[in-house]
Amino acid sequence: MTTPLRLVLADDHEVTRAGFVAMLGGCDEFEVVGQAADGDSALQLCEGLQPDIAILDIRMPGLNGLGAARLLQQRMPHLKVVMFTMYDSPEHLEAAIGAGAVGYLLKDASRDEVIAALRRVAAGEEALNSAVSARLLRRITDRSNAGAPPTDTLTNRERQVLGLVAGGFSNREIGEKLGISAGTVKTHVERLIAKLGVADRTQAAVRGIALGLVAQPTADWPGSAP
Asked: Which residues form the HTH luxR-type domain (predicted)?
């Protein structure tokens, strides 16, 4: 009998995690060997359990899925990362690909769709939601035709803050890293949201990654030490 592929699942909603595990019930090809409610816990589980695939939600408390994916790619480049999310926007897909994800599944996917996607990922292929991928392709084409959007309105400090926001860190952690108060960080985040034309800090992070404004996290970022 073939040994099942080992999965680590990270989502801050216990019901979602339980539903995903139940969805794989009866499928001997995959086994969820660990569950986490945030990105930091997912990192620890992956480093300890050495799974074949990590299934990550994008929006989680603490270190979000995008930040976790980037750090996992640095520390465990052999690990395959799949985003399992409610976001069906091309910006989120682009950010996920930029973070190293090879799969992008929506939470309303059917059992057959999920299993088929995991099989493709296990075989070394990409498994990206086709409808969102099509919109992303149109977006890239439109962006190419229109020229890249201006990004010089962000100050150097705002770019620093944006990078740490994209890593999933709190205002307090960002303030400690940059030597400024949490209130000042909050002001920078509010300005970033306004300048990038988004609704919240998660969307700001996604937009920043899509525009190439966010650098890879380094070892001296809060919470990213080995």
From this structure: 147-212
Q: Is the pTM of this model over 0.70?
A: no
* DSSP letters spanning 134-184: HHHHHHHHHHHHH-PPP-TTS-HHHHHHHHHHHTT--HHHHHHHHTS-HHH
**70 in the same domain as 29:** yes
CA distances from 217 to 9, 185, 191, 225 (A): 22, 18, 22, 10
Residue 149 counted as domain residue: no
Q: How many domains is the chain built from? A: 2
Q: pLDDT value at position 69?
A: 92
**d(Cα 190, Cα 10) in Å, to the nearest integer?**
28
